[in-house]
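Hi V.,

Quick status before I head out on leave. The structure for the redesign project is tokenized and pasted below; the design run finished overnight.
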């Protein structure tokens, strides 16, 4: 079977209240041999709760979640990969990516 690794990164940290942030999950095959990028979906999780619907992977094995509605504080974002039905790839989950939202200081 083809095991996978999933990672999630943010494009900016910290952000301010209502400032957009883009989280990108990348799913890669663990083995060096074989062809094709993993296919399927990624479920982003924010502080242990689902962040919207699953996002389909693109041809590069990436899924993107954009948000501007995070509350102030430190958040934990993860991504869980679910392969396409019948795929040779195995599911995987990312390590936690922390993201900080700074409150406005007058």
């Amino acid at each position: 079977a083809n095991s996978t690794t999933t990672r999630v990164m943010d494009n900016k940290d910290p952000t301010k209240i209502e400032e957009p942030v883009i989280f990108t999950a990348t799913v890669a095959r663990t083995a060096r041999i074989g062809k094709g990028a993993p296919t399927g979906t990624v479920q982003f999780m924010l502080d242990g709760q689902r962040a919207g619907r699953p996002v389909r992977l693109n041809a590069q094995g990436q899924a993107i979640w954009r948000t501007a509605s995070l509350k102030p504080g430190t958040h934990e974002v993860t991504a869980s990969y679910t392969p396409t039905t019948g795929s040779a790839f195995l599911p995987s989950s990312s390590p936690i990516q922390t993201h900080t939202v700074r409150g406005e200081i007058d």
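Above is the designed sequence. The mean pLDDT is 94.

G. will cover questions while I'm gone.

Best,
W.
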